[in-house]
Amino acid sequence: MDRRTTAAFAGASALLDRGVRDQLRLCWRLLRDDRVSPLKYLLPTLVGLYVLSPLDPIPDFLMGIGQMDDFGIAIASVLLLTRIIPKLAPAEIVDEHLRYMDNDCRTHHRQTKADSDVIEAQFNVRR
After folding, report:
1. 11-29, pLDDT tens digit by residue?
2. How far apart are the C-alpha atoms of 79 and 84, rounded to whole Å?
3. Whole-model pTM above 0.90?
4. C-alpha to C-alpha distance for 58 and 61, rounded to whole angstroms
5. How many helices (H) and strands (E) does the chain have?
6. Domain contains 87
7. Any domain includes 13
8. Cβ(14)–Cβ(79) under 8 Å?
9. N or C: which end of the chain has fewer CB within 10 A?
10. Average per-residue pLDDT in the chain?
11. 91-99: average pLDDT
């Protein structure tokens, strides 16, 4: 693959990164938390209005290209949300959610590891 091809998918591959997934989980948790500023709904609302709006820099009747600009704006806004939403929340609330997410991951890891310690099998020995 040449450099131009991989650069075209850089935004999509960034969404698959574990750090970005954790940031998305944190943002989702903060969006549902009532203690965070109501400004948290502004960017998702603006993106929804842009996607539904008939006014686009590239019209949607140009099949493929018209929808790709909407898709690109949606991905860029999701990545932007992961940076803005935690800044709208008080630090102690963000820390609380991060601690809960960390404990949740550790508990899941322990359960998975404990399940893998036991191996049950049957053997038939023929002579």
Report:
1. 555 556 677 788 889 999 9
2. 9
3. no
4. 9
5. 6, 0
6. yes
7. yes
8. yes
9. C
10. 77
11. 91
List the domain range (segments joined by +) for residue 52: 3-117
Report the C-alpha gap between 67 and 59 in whole angstroms: 8
Burial class (CB in 10 A: 0-12, 13-18, 19+), 97: buried
Residue 33 inside a domain? The answer is yes
Burial of 74 (0-12, 13-18, 19+ CB in 10 A): middle
Q: Is 36 left (phi over 0), alpha (psi -120 to 50) or beta?
A: beta
Element (H, E) at 76: helix 65-88
Number of independent structural domains in the chain = 1
Residue 18: inside a domain: yes
Residue carrying the six token digits 């009532």: 34
Question: Do 30 and 36 contact (CB within 8 A), yes or no?
Answer: yes
More confident residue, 107 or 86: 86
Predicted pLDDT at 17: 67
